[in-house]
Amino acid sequence: MNTKGKEPQAGRSKPRKAHTISRRQFIKSSAFLGAAALAAAEAPWALGQVKALAAGAGQAEGQDYDLAKATNVIYGACLQCNTQCTMKGKLLDGVLVKVDGNPYSPQNMLPPIKYSTSLDEAARVDGKLCPKGQSTIQTLYDPYRLRKVLKRAGPRGSNRWKVIGFDQAISEITNGGKLFVDAGEDRAVSGMKDVLAVRDAALLKELSGDAAKVAKKEMTPEAFRAKHQDHLDLLIDPEHPDFGPKNNQFVFLAGRIEPGRSDFSKRFVIGGAGSVNWFEHTTICEQSHHVAYKWTTAQYDKGAWSPGPNHMKPDYINSSFVIFWGTGAFEANFGPTPMAEHVTRALVERGLKIAVVDPRLSKTAAKADIWVPVKPGDGDLALALGMIRWIIDHGRYDQKYLENANKAAATADGENTWTNSAWLVKVDKNGHSGALLRAGEVGLGLPGKDAKDLFVVSRGGSLLAVDPNDTKAAVEGDLAVDTVVGGITVKSAFQVLRDEAFAKDMAAYATLAGVDAGLIERLANEFTSYGRKAAIDFYRGAVQHTNGYYTAQAIIALNLLIGNVDWKGGLSTGGGAWAAMGGKSNQPFDLGKHPGKLPAFGLKLTREGSAYEKSSIFQGYPAPRQWYPFTTDVYQEVIPAAGAGYPYPIKVLWLHKGTPALACPGGTEQIKILTDPSKVPLFIATDIVIAETSMYADYIFPDLSFAERWGFLGSPPSTVVKTTKVRQPMAPAIPEMVKVAGEEMPISMESAMLALADRLRLSGLGKDAFGPASDLLRPEDFYLKAVANIAAGDKDGDAVPAAGDRELEILRQARRSMQKGVFDEARWRKAVGDANWANTAYVLNRGGRFEDASKAYAGELLGHPFGKLLNLYVEPVATARDAVTGDFYSGVGKYEPVKNANGKPVADKDFPFALITFKEIFGGQSRTPGNYWAQNALLPENFVLMNAKDAANLGVADGDMVVLKSRTNPNGIMDLGQGGKEPVKGRVKITEGIRPGVVAASWHYGHWAYGARDVVVDGKVVKGDRRRGTGLCPNPVMLLDEHMKTVSLTDPIGGSASFYDTRVKVEKAGA
Amino acid sequence: MTALREARGGAGAVGTEAVGAASGNGVTSRRDLLRKAGVALAAVAVAEILETSEALSVVHAEALPGGSSAGAKPAVSVPAAPLASPGSEWRSNVLRMQDELAAALKKPLAERRWGMVIDRRKCVGCMSCTVACKAENGLPPGVVYRPVIEEEMGTYPAVGRRFTPRPCMQCENPPCVPVCPVHATYRQPDGVVVIDYEQCIGCRYCITACPYGARGFDFGEYYTTRTPEVQPYELSPSHEYGKKWVRKGERSPVGNARKCQFCLHRLNAGMLPACVTTCIGGATYFGDLKLAGSLVSEMIGQESASRLRDELGTRPAVYYLG
After folding, report:
1. Which residue among A403, A553, A719, A922 has its CA within the 20 to 30 Å range from the CA of A589?
2. B22: distance to nearest CA of chain A, Å?
3. Residue A496 within a domain
4. Is pLDDT of B86 > 90?
5. Which of 160-199 (B) contact A at CB < 8 A?
6. CB contact (8 A) between residue B232 and residue A66
């Protein structure tokens, strides 16, 4: 039986009317989370409710539909997934009771209402929203929300806690000492005051400058030590000044931290606390895709490449053929709410054809003309290279477009972008294609240009110098070049790609991809049959492999081969956003201003953004752990690096809204490190609940949910008009109100940072934080200023209208139930100044700023085109070596099997199934088990999906319990430390919609915390809710890297954690 | 379940024509498979949700797109304004329907016939309608006004999935009405079948009588009953029938039968039902079937529309495309 859309029925025997839990009981029972008493001011919803009930009004009078009134509406932004859709919150008696899409926003309506529409009118139009967004209320009103600060009262992970005051927590973290005597630990902990050893910006700058000189060998380490002998104790290791100051031993690790909050927290961590170690989570999402795009869009200027936009999406609605590769339009991606209708209307009304590359028949694949159930692992890469081979072999690429070597040539052809396909690449004696040839190397040049910064093409046997951005002299080059010039062996970039693609024949690619060669041809043929009205959308599924970057680059190359960027129906870099951080001459606030900002420096804990060879710990190959020069935020490696003390040990870990133990492949391995005080001496967390990783922390600060807090951000490129979204409190705050330097506010990440900055006297937060008389005393001082910038626009004359009296009244009325620590009109006005208030209110009242839908296109081009060079060949990558193997990377996508950091391929032939994950649209990765309407009701438990043939061979039936085991988790066990040991076990669901030999599990279940289990607070047991712990999380059996041991397999270039390269055994278990 | 297996077998036979997956160069598109299998399986879906093996069928089946052969896509003309010229925009169906709603509300009640059209080709199975409805109508565990039924058909690699949202059909001849011993449920002149919570005694005959399984019973449960604190959203009033209902103790609607009423409280405020506005695929249409030129009237007139179990003579006001 299909359980979707159906819920377990409560007993059907007889009607029961026995639910008489009183408000007083609720309040009492919530005390463990810190709400010793819910004062009316803290919970205004309680007041209205109690009054209504006291009046005996089960059915109140009145025909008015309260939720259609503008005075009950506040527009915010979602964060159930990273699409972060705009949303419309509706309040009743101070309770957020309903959330819908924001009708002003292109993310929620196709097309949206005019931006000038009155608030009263807009209140009667609801936009669309996915089921996760619809369940926002249950993330906000999660019965397991934290309200007060918790400190552990037992060993890490024991889930024994005590409630402590906010100020006490701030003092203990600041000062350190013997903090855990009550938990039986005699050790002294370094407080932040000691860890943040350097607070003097001038001194830090001097240390930083000289450390850079040491790295460049312009200064000897001895000279450095002599010069700074009085300050050597401020460094992590005086032998290695490039590690930076001790401040770097403070590590901030965030999960899905969002724009706005990223800016705020970087201000604290980097500029205030002076640590380089600020991280977020994207490598467990789809980072290699971003990394490949940002080097594809990198521009060359004065000897250096600067990465560009990291994301493109098809303009689905005008496209004729779209391939969804390892992603779809209807389940996850970026994201279903803005994308789905573009695709469904194009499918039904416009004749769009789609293909889906996915081993599982996703909901998008269900609507596809072509389903390609590719083999997981290296199948995606083989398929992409096979398509490239066929397209080149059959001359189906856009030769004229690719021959354009500079802007002038593109313009002459009516093109908007151009590529480096014809540029010449130098090939070394081992056949490695490395740096691009510079004009100066072959005696060429252009007037007024440095020949070192010019490139070279070959045209009809002559060499020509290329200035990529020259608008006057068009340069075109031949695509097939493989020759020797001036003693240098060269190939055109296109030829390099061709040679990599032709390294295998179609049959070999078909075998590796696990599909017929005919299907590869069919895909390639279709893709090249619609001019620019075709595109490949790819995401997580294609790139969370050890070869993820190469796969991404190969797929991008396919798009470049048809020249679809910037064209209607082709690929879009998005509509862009207004600059919220300010800095433009017409904008009122420059939020980048930070007097006394510490110039943080040093190697990051994850060795990202740095070259091993240039470090002071270069000792030849292999490096003990991988280095990641081309990526950022290698999330899965932060805690393992701390565990290994490579390159240095850490002192304080602040985990914010992250759950690496649950969310990283093989993440449970990190629990061993997190529970070892010698590896992680002090561990603090900000979280809305006690979650799978924050449960191991020493302190947990309650945080605000996305429905209660601030933020500002642009849209993913699936939105082709200019958009800046504003997140703002849509409901009274749940966490306790505290005073920070005299200002009342709910506990949150921001208030914890403000309080620590105040205590430690850090720059950037507090009085005069932006400059004289420009304070950052509370969150609104930062976020509302950003809204004022958005309202002012990007240039003179770009300001939004001022809110009139009615609009200002609506703003006030809609927030009438907010605590004063959340909404205080006078304080809000003060944050932006009277002159900016009415314009700011106009933007707040609409949840952001949205360009008119008519600006989406300009003729056959997109309205906001990219208009620059696109790199088929990525020079910086081609000239770097892998820190473990010492091998050069490739400038184009090339075939590579799934491998460990040491280069050893992963075979695991004894493990018969490939394991993949996917997302149901009603679930997020880690934060939706309390969404009782959505994840809980729609699919109470997830499954191990298996093809019927495999099930028959294994002798398992629908509903049988099975355990998953892998080479690096041979017993299929989650070792949760104090949380016990449990098998990685789930129920089989048999389907025809999956490739035989593959098992899949959706990725939202298997929770061991987040309200799923009992915890003890102040000696009292708080019962967990079993509904929240059902199903399985497949991550604990995912492969660990053979060379690094404590971290998952990882793409060395893109940094992506491997989610789809593990092979498992599936063994029948007891129920 | 027998019916399900047979239907799967049937779809499998269709699937042997092979789609272009690993099996090679098949030319039948996956969407064709869905079209073909659709006729046989539409009935099974409903059987499944009802947990009954009773065979169901779909009238107008001959008119389903599945009745046509493979190949060219049907020349669909959903009467939404198409993209006119470069730079122009798509017209919002939501705004069009909301305008039509306003026009319909000006007519006398008896001259309106509220109806819904669900285009399964556009339904992406997200179940946002299910959740939005829960929130809008304050539904407890076990009561689902608008489930989305999911079917899988065919054999790997020729496999299809289809999604069928199933609201109350708002039948012209509703089997749930005559069985009510206290006349608490009746059909309004505008076609919406309603329940008078004050009159309903909770006997649940109507729940049994509905051939679509569209009614549930409110046992008074909260989603957060067995957690540290019942949450405020569960104690906030809902607006069904234009009144405020707080589910508390034994007060209505606790102890009552409950069903989809097309969000009458929203209609009367000039707003579309919650399932319509939140539909991310733009698959659900709503309006006055009697209003000339309305989107829904055009769709059921121009399209090969079908209704579920129309052979029972229930005459639903909910139509399906695809």
Report:
1. A719
2. 5
3. yes
4. no
5. 160-163, 166, 197-198
6. no
Residue A621 CB neighbour total at 10 angstroms: 15
Integer-rounded Cα radius of gyration of chain A: 29
Do A874 and A946 lie in one domain? The reply is no
The whole-angstrom distance between B220's CA and the closest CA on chain A is 6
- A349 and B144 within 8 Å at the Cβ level: the answer is no
- pLDDT, position A1071: 54
Instruction: Using an 8 Å CB-CB cutoff, list chain A residues near B142.
Output: 7-10
Q: How many domains does chain A have?
A: 2
Last residue of a domain, one of A823, A858, A878: A878
Of A110, A130, A143, the CB nearest to B90: A110
Residues A950 and A1013 in one domain: yes
End-to-end CA distance of chain B: 24
- pLDDT tens track for A963-1008: 999 999 999 999 999 999 999 999 999 999 999 999 999 999 999 9
| Domain contains A40 | no
For residue A662, give every residue at least 6 positions away whose Cβ sits within 8 Å of its Cβ, in sequence order, or none. Answer: A691, A692, A693, A926, A1007, A1008, A1033, A1035
Is B265 touching A (CB cutoff 8 A)? Answer: yes
In sequence order, which residues have a C-beta less than 8 Å from that of residue A925 and are 6 or more positions away?
A663, A919, A1003, A1004
CATH of segment(s) B2-68+92-321? 3.30.70.20
Dihedral sign from CA coordinates of A144, A145, A148, A150: positive
Q: What is the domain-level CATH number for residue A972?
A: 2.40.40.20
Per-residue confidence band for B3, with pLDDT thresholds at 50, 70 and 90:
very low
Average pLDDT over residues B94-104: 96
Residue A927 lies in a domain: yes
Distance CA A908, CA A1038 (A): 12
Q: Is the pLDDT of residue A21 over 80?
A: no
- Taking residues B180-186, what's their average pLDDT? 98
Shared domain for A1003 and A874, answered yes or no, is no
Q: What is the pLDDT of residues A1034-1044, one digit of tens each?
A: 999 999 999 99
Regarding beta strands A424-427 and A433-436, do their DSSP bridges make them parallel or antiparallel, or are they unpaired? antiparallel
Contact between chains at B134 and A110 (C-beta distance less than 8 A)? no
pLDDT of res. A59: 38
In chain B, residues with a C-beta closer than 8 Å to the C-beta of A125 are 94-95, 98, 271, 277
Q: Are residues A874 and A952 in the same domain?
A: no
Q: Is B30 on the interface with A (CB under 8 A)?
A: yes
Where does residue B2 rank: exposed (0-12), middle (13-18), buried (19+ CB within 10 A)?
exposed
Nearest CA distance, A976 vs chain B (angstrom): 24
- Residues A324, A918: contact at Cβ < 8 Å? no
| Average confidence (pLDDT) over A219-248 | 96
Asked if residues A378 and A529 have their Cβ atoms less than 8 Å apart, the reply is no
Q: What is the C-alpha to C-alpha distance for residues A830 and A784, in angstroms, rounded to an integer?
A: 10
Shortest distance, CA B89 to any CA of chain A (angstroms):
6
The pTM assigned to this predicted structure is 0.91
Delimit the domains of chain B by residue range: 2-68+92-321
Give a yes or no: residue A680 inside a domain.
no
Structural domain that includes position A1048: 913-1068
